[in-house]
Design goal:
Number of strands: 3
Number of helices: 4
Structural class: mainly alpha
Radius of gyration: 16 Å
Helix content: 55-70%
């Protein structure tokens, strides 16, 4: 549930001027969105919406242990894929439709690994409860 709430918070804060600097440069998608969340992460409206959706799914799936584990595994893998995709297409590429910068990509990869690890540890706890 914590990861879901965190992603919801990041998605909402990405739409708030002041927290997202250069807010006037916020575009719906593409590398031309130069808005910076917390002055570190390049964001677009689409990326903020994706974060909101991931957060809502995480919050919903956290109602059961198996759902929480599946959320952590599935969306952890998605974050790793997004990080690899962002690194492979480059920041200025037209294929960078989510407006990811290098810090976004590395953060997604680390977050993905941490989510998968948390899901694995959580699944071990679920197996112990069944005994």
């Amino acid at each position: 549930m914590g990861v879901g709430i965190l992603m919801l918070l990041v998605g909402v804060l990405g739409f708030i001027p002041g927290i997202t600097l250069q807010y006037g440069d916020l575009k719906f998608l593409g590398p031309d969105s130069h808005a910076m969340f917390l002055s570190l992460f390049q964001v677009s409206m689409l990326l903020n919406i994706v974060q909101l959706v991931i957060g809502a799914v995480g919050w919903t799936m956290s109602r059961s242990g198996i759902g929480a584990r599946n959320f952590l595994w599935g969306f952890g893998a998605l974050y790793i894929v997004l990080g690899i995709y962002g690194l492979s297409v480059g920041v200025g590429s037209a294929a960078n439709f989510l407006s990811l910068n290098a810090l976004d990509n590395w953060t997604f990869m680390v977050l993905g690994v941490l989510m998968i690890a948390a899901g694995w540890m959580f699944s071990r706890h679920l197996a112990d409860d069944r005994k």
